Amino acid sequence: MRKLSYKIVNDKGVNSTKVHRLSGFTLLELMLAITILSLVMTVTYMTFSTVIKAWQRGSQLTEELNRGDFVVEQIVLGLRSTYYPESNQKDSKYGFWMEDNGDGATAEDEISWVALGSALIGKENVYFGSPHRVRVTIEDDEDGDVGVAVRSWRVKGQDEDFEPEDIEPVFLSTRITGMNCRMAYEMKDDNELDWLDEWEETNKVPKYVELTLYMEPLGRDDDAVEVKRLVKISAGDLCWGKEMTIGTDDGASQGNRGNSNNKRRKTDQRRANPGNRRPPTSSGAGLRSRPNTPGRP
Q1: Each residue's pLDDT tens digit, 110-119
Q2: Rounded-to-integer distance, Cα 187 and Cα 247, Å
């Protein structure tokens, strides 16, 4: 802080001196203020940038999941429309085909089955109401982008030189980079599905199919985005007979069997001791009346 002094001459010729103090900031104070302001602005920018990146990442993840859900639901609808003829003769023409091509995010499995309906092929297709085979693969499109490709053709009426590879595929999405498939048709001893990575029963269809799709990772060091579905194929019961139930409680099953045994035991006791039955009363209680049928006495 500086001092400023000056002289004033009044009317009487008397000189007087007045002193005024001038307030201000020193260089050190200015540098300190600028440093604090810079730190506050840096922290604010970093916080704002982190929020923006998190929002962008969340939006990208939501978009990827929505795209993956759309593709996997289309395949699930196709699997649920699996067709298998009701006959004792098992024909590989109507069986489930699968080619195992790796595991994890780099898997490119191929699956094929016979279906009925417009799932995966559309109602504009002339054979959507008749049995047709559908094949789903992971392959490159014309631009070199990896995606899910779908081909379909009639089960019957094809030429001898027919090749499914000659059919132009329809791509559901070019953001799907991998597909892994597992099948099951029976339970293990621990009451869980016995999953198979390879399917050798080409003349039958599985009861359950686990489908996993992989999409491009959000960041360079991130894992691939994964969408998984478990599909119950009703046509599998025609191949394997009895129906499986996932997650059946052994204790509950034993309890139900015990209740059935108790009921059966009580029935046998009543049959063995007919005298314990309650006789019909005079009012007719305990008697089964015959319904009044027109024309019948």
Answers
A1: 999 999 999 9
A2: 10
